[in-house]
């Protein structure tokens, strides 16, 4: 079984994902917790459970199981687990994570300079003024050494919606431009 076998991957996220994300420390604690559970199950005589790999991917933990039995066990265990602060965990679809399954599309959103650091206002205003445009899962980063524009990571559905708006959504009742940086717009279906 290849490590990239999507059927053996379980994506673990906080209940509030994507607004709430796992920290690196949370992923380390999760890995230790899962290994402890596997050890406990082996003591009870239940063998065959194995985790091949656990990766931290932008606020989500991607657990690669060695076999289907381990995956089914893990999928039933995750909803019972809690983070170290007592909040619940859940299983997410790989597509739900930004960049999962090749869905990561990098773009530049050209907005006035004074909005670059207010990412929450930026996403809420775009969603409010452009019906159908979902911005809650967007990852927004400042562009190093650039005075305008923010780097955004969006999915295929966002690109389709933006194309309907001619890649110029409304922001504070004015048109702002979105440019696809990666992959090239000609490579994107829709």
TrEMBL record:
This is DUF4780 domain-containing protein. It holds the Pfam family DUF4780. It comes from Diabrotica balteata. InterPro entries: DUF4780. It comes from the Eukaryota. Residues 7-178 form the DUF4780 domain.
């Amino acid at each position: 079984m290849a490590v990239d076998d999507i059927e053996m991957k379980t994506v673990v996220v906080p209940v509030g994902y994507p607004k709430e994300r796992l920290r690196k420390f949370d992923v380390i604690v999760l890995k230790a917790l899962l290994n402890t559970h596997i050890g406990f199950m082996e003591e009870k005589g239940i063998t065959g459970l194995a985790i091949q790999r656990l990766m931290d991917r932008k606020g989500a933990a991607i657990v690669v199981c060695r076999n289907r039995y381990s995956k089914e066990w893990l999928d039933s265990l995750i909803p019972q687990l809690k983070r170290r602060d007592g909040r619940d965990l859940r299983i997410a679809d790989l597509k739900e994570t930004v960049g999962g399954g090749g869905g990561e599309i990098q773009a530049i959103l050209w907005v006035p300079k004074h909005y670059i650091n207010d990412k929450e206002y930026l996403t809420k205003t775009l969603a409010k003024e452009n019906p159908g445009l979902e911005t809650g899962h967007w990852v927004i980063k400042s562009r190093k050494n650039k005075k305008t524009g923010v780097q955004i990571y969006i999915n295929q559905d966002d690109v389709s919606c933006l194309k309907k708006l001619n890649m110029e959504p409304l922001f504070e009742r004015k048109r702002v431009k979105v440019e696809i940086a990666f992959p090239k717009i000609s490579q994107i279906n829709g």
